[in-house]
Inverse folding.
C-alpha cells in the first residue's frame, strides 16, 4: 500500500459521498464510481454541508459504471443499496485487484456472504453506519448528525486491515467503534431496524414517537424486537434481556425520527426489504424460530412494494 | 304494524340508500335521516344506477340529525359506519319507539351489544350485506353487483320479525339468506375481511389478487384466516377446516377487488378498524387465543390512521 492510500467509493449516494469526504480529509486519494450524474460530479465535485464543517470535495477520478480500473485501489468501499436488482458483485468486480480490501458500508443482516463468496481471496471489512445524511440532489449532500462507524472483519475478528481503515476514518474526523463480532453488531442494529423501519413504511412514513405512542404500538415494537433477539440468539448472537428496554428508552429520548426506509418509500425509491427484514425472517425459518409478527410485516411490505409499481 | 310498513333509514350512504330503494320498491314508506346533504336529497331524491334497473327514489321524508320523530317507524334501519366517534345509540335514540324493530346493516364483529344494551325492549335484527355499491357524490349511488343480505335475530334465532323484514327485502328484488346464528355468519365474513381489508390498506389499496400473488401473500392470508377461525371457535362458532381453501379459491375466481376499507382509506374517510379487526383481537385476548398476525396488522393500521390525521 502506498503512503497515500487509494480509495474507490462505489455507489456515491449520501452515505458514499459522506465517507468519501471523510477519507479525503484523511489524505487519501478518493475516486468514485457513479451510476448517474458522473458529469456533474466530475465538474463540480460533491457539495457536502455538515456539522463537522464544509466537507465538499472533488474526487480524484470520477468513473461511470462502464469504466474499468487502470490501477486497483487499496480499498473498494461499497456503499450500494442492497436490493434484488442491484448486482453488487458485478458492479464491484472490475475494480477489485488481488490486494484490494473490500469495505462494506451497508445496512442489513447477512449482506456479506454474496461478496465474500465472489471475492474469497480479498480481505473483507464490514461496517455499520450510524448517521443521518441525505442527498438533496445529485452531488449535493446534507449531513445532519452522527457519523460513527462500527468496523469489524467478516465473519469475525479484527485484523490490522480493519484497524488501518478505521484509523483513516478517525483521521478524517469521525468516531470508530471496533467489533470483534460485527455480525452480532448487525443483529443489535437489526433489533431496532426490524420493527421501526417497516412499520413506518406501512404507516405511510410515521415517525418513531407516533409508532410508540399509538395504543398497542410500543407493545408491538417490543414483541417484534423480542422476535429478532430470538433469531439472533439461535444464530449465535445472544443479547441481554435489557436490550429492549434500552432501545425503547433511547428512542423516546431522541426527537421523532423518520428512518431511511421510510424516506426511500416517500421518495419513490426501492426499499431494502430483504436486507433489513427479509434476511432476518429467512434465517428464522432456517433455524426454526417462530417470527409471526416479522413475517406479517415483511409480507405486508412486499405487497405494498408490489402495489407501488 | 300498518299495511304499508314505515321504514326509517339512518345513515343513508351507499348501503343505506341502496336498501332504502329496495324497501321503497317493496311498497314501504321510506324516510331517511341524513347527516349531510339533506337539502339535496329532499329536492332531488336519490339517483341510484343498478344492474337491477333504475332504483332512483324520493324518500317520503328527509330528516336532518336534529329532527325528532313525529311517529315512530316500524323499522329503524341503521346503516351507520361503526366508528369510535360515531355514537350510534345517540343517533338512533330519537327515532326508536316502543314497537320499533331495529335493523343493523353494518360490517364487523360484536357490533350489536352496544345497541342491544341501549334498547333492551326492542327486537333487534342483525344483517350482513354482500354488495358492491359506492357513493359517487351526495345523493348519487352506483350499485355495481350483488346485494344479498344475511338476516338473523340477535344474539341468535329467527323470529317472525326477521322473516317479515326479509320478505320485504325479497319483494324489493334482492336475495335473502336467513341465519339462526347470525353471529356465526359474522365470524364467517370476518375470516375473509380480517386479512384482506387491513392488508389492502397497509399496502396502499392493493387488490385481492395482488395480495394473494405477492410471494408469501397467500400464506399470510391463510395464517390470518386460521387465527380468526381459532377465535371464532373459542367464541362458540367453529368452522370446518375447508373454509380457508374455499375462501382462497373463491377470491381467486373473482376479479381483482378493492374492499370497502381500502376505498375508505383512499378517499380519506375513517376506517372501521375496530369493527372489522379490533373486536376480533379484543375477543381473542379475552378468550386467551394467540393472534400475533392480527394484532400486528391492527396496530400497524392504527399507527397509519394516527399518521393520517
Amino acid at each position: 500500500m502506498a503512503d497515500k492510500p487509494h480509495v474507490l467509493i462505489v455507489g456515491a449516494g449520501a452515505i458514499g459521498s459522506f465517507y468519501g469526504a471523510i477519507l479525503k480529509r484523511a489524505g487519501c486519494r478518493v475516486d468514485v464510481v457513479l451510476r448517474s450524474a458522473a458529469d456533474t460530479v466530475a465538474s463540480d465535485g460533491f457539495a457536502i454541508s455538515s456539522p463537522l464543517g464544509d466537507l465538499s470535495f472533488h474526487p480524484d477520478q470520477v468513473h461511470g459504471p462502464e469504466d474499468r480500473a487502470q490501477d486497483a485501489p487499496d480499498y473498494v468501499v461499497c456503499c450500494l443499496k442492497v436490493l434484488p436488482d442491484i448486482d453488487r458483485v458485478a458492479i464491484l468486480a472490475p475494480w477489485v485487484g488481488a490486494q484490494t480490501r473490500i469495505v462494506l458500508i451497508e445496512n442489513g443482516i447477512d449482506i456479506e456472504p454474496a461478496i465474500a463468496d465472489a471475492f474469497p481471496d480479498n480481505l473483507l471489512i464490514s461496517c455499520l453506519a450510524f448517521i443521518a445524511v441525505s442527498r438533496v440532489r445529485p452531488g449535493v449532500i446534507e449531513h445532519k448528525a452522527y457519523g460513527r462507524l462500527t468496523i469489524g472483519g467478516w465473519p469475525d475478528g479484527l485484523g490490522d486491515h480493519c484497524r488501518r481503515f478505521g484509523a483513516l476514518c478517525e483521521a478524517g474526523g469521525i468516531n470508530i467503534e471496533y467489533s470483534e463480532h460485527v455480525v452480532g453488531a448487525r443483529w443489535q442494529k437489526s433489533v431496532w431496524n426490524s420493527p421501526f423501519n417497516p412499520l413506518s413504511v406501512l404507516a405511510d412514513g410515521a415517525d418513531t414517537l407516533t409508532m410508540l405512542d399509538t395504543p398497542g404500538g410500543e407493545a408491538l415494537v417490543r414483541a417484534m424486537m423480542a422476535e429478532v433477539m430470538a433469531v439472533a440468539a439461535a444464530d449465535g448472537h445472544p443479547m441481554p434481556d435489557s436490550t429492549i428496554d434500552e432501545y425503547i428508552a433511547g428512542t423516546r429520548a431522541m426527537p421523532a425520527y423518520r428512518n431511511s426506509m421510510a424516506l426511500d418509500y416517500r421518495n419513490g425509491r426501492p426499499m431494502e426489504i430483504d436486507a433489513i427484514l427479509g434476511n432476518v425472517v429467512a434465517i428464522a425459518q432456517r433455524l426454526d424460530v417462530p417470527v409471526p409478527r416479522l413475517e406479517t410485516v415483511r409480507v405486508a411490505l412486499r405487497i405494498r412494494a408490489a402495489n407501488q409499481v
Observations:
- DSSP finds twelve helices and nine strands in chain A.
- The mean pLDDT of chain A is 94.
